[in-house]
Amino acid sequence: MEKDQAVEVSRIHKVDGDSKLKAFVDISLCGIVVKGLRIVSGKNGLFLGMPRHQGKDGKWYDTVYPLTPETKQELQQLVLAAYQE
Predict the structure, then answer these.
(1) Measured between alpha carbons, how far is 16 from 75 in angstroms, rounded to an integer?
(2) 32-66 pLDDT, tens per residue?
(3) How far, rounded to the nearest angstrom, does the alpha carbon of residue 69 sit from its chain's CA centroid?
(4) At the topology level of CATH, where does 3-84 sit?
(5) Using alpha carbons only, how large is the chain's radius of gyration in Å?
(6) HEC states along the chain?
(7) Annotated domain spans of the chain
(8) What pLDDT is recorded for position 3?
């Protein structure tokens, strides 16, 4: 990511137990805090889930999402590295 779009992990709240949900993460981006990212254990290892809300139809919808696959990959690498420290 470019320097003017520096992303920092501002908080990691690890979840105890045997759940697939491993942690909730907040990040800061250009002076804005994005809350509710999730680290989840999937069949191919850990991955980053975006914040989401449940619609009136009962389905879940992402409220924040990266515009490109490259941005998603970079964000996931940054957050998982902070989680594993």
Answers:
(1) 24
(2) 999 999 999 999 999 999 999 999 999 999 999 89
(3) 14
(4) Arylsulfatase, C-terminal domain (3.30.1120)
(5) 13
(6) CCHHHCEEEEEEEECCCCCCEEEEEEEEECCEEEEEEEEEEECCEEEEECCEEECCCCCEEECCCCCCHHHHHHHHHHHHHHHHC
(7) 3-84
(8) 52
